[in-house]
Specification:
alpha/beta; two-stranded antiparallel sheet; 9 helices; 11 strands; globular
Length: 237
């Protein structure tokens, strides 16, 4: 059994491919093909993308700019990624909408919850850009908020590792992966897979989070169609 409606959270770095900056067309096409395949199987997608391949609001100190301004710059970076993914999805025949928390009617629809749900019900892939529209909130928090608003059954968080570990598996080969872990344990252990605001929001609304490896071909389809591909964060272990 799979999901009827999911919120797919992609990092900005995922759009950059091996280069680590900007947009890699081939990488975006690979991601888009998996989303389209899952959508044709009946899964409804809301999609939130970060902007770290261009700019992060947390870079404020390093560039000597006001945090509010740099967060707004980061929101605009997510819009660029959303437009790139939209083009890749439509190239493969999908019907899409980009909706933004910051009004920019010439290139995208303003985010309106009921309209977003209606698009999903009509089988459109809805890309939700510009975060929450407010500074100091990450795109992880935006993903949690939008997932709750559109009544997604799960947040599918695409990462570069195959789940949640008790330590960083990149730096510690002895790290142990969890098949399932509670929200409370994630917060207690200080596991930084998402910020604490996003985890708390999911916990409060009993919204599970599936953390999986984006770099394994076909994993978006597996995550969307209910195959176990990583770690499930849920109310109980």
């Amino acid at each position: 059994m799979g999901y009827k409606r999911i919120l797919l959270k992609l990092s900005g770095e995922a759009m950059a491919g091996a280069a680590g900056f900007g947009i890699d067309g081939q990488r975006i096409d690979e991601i888009a093909s998996q989303i389209v395949e899952a959508a044709r199987a009946g899964v409804q997608f809301g999609i939130v993308i970060g902007g770290g391949n261009f700019f992060r609001g947390s870079q404020a100190a390093s560039v000597s700019l006001d945090r509010v301004a740099t967060d707004q710059m980061g929101m605009l970076a997510t819009v660029m990624n959303a437009l790139a993914l939209q083009a890749a999805l439509e190239k493969q025949g999908a019907s899409t909408r980009v909706m933004t928390a910051i009004e920019m009617r010439n290139i995208a629809e303003p985010y309106i919850r009921r309209r977003a749900i209606r698009h999903l019900e009509k089988g459109r892939l809805v890309i939700l850009a510009a975060g929450t529209g407010s500074p100091y909130f990450s795109t992880d928090t935006a993903a949690a908020l939008r997932a709750v608003e559109i009544k997604a059954e799960v947040i599918a968080k695409a990462t570069k590792v195959d789940g949640v570990y008790d330590q960083d598996p990149v730096h510690n080969a002895a790290a142990v992966r969890f098949d399932r872990i509670s929200y409370q344990e994630v917060l207690t252990r200080g596991l930084r897979l998402m910020d604490s605001t996003a985890i708390a929001m999911c916990w409060e609304n009993r919204l599970p989070i599936l953390v999986f490896n984006l770099n394994v071909p076909g994993n978006i389809v597996r995550a969307a169609t209910g195959e176990v591909t990583g770690t499930l964060i849920a109310e109980t272990t």
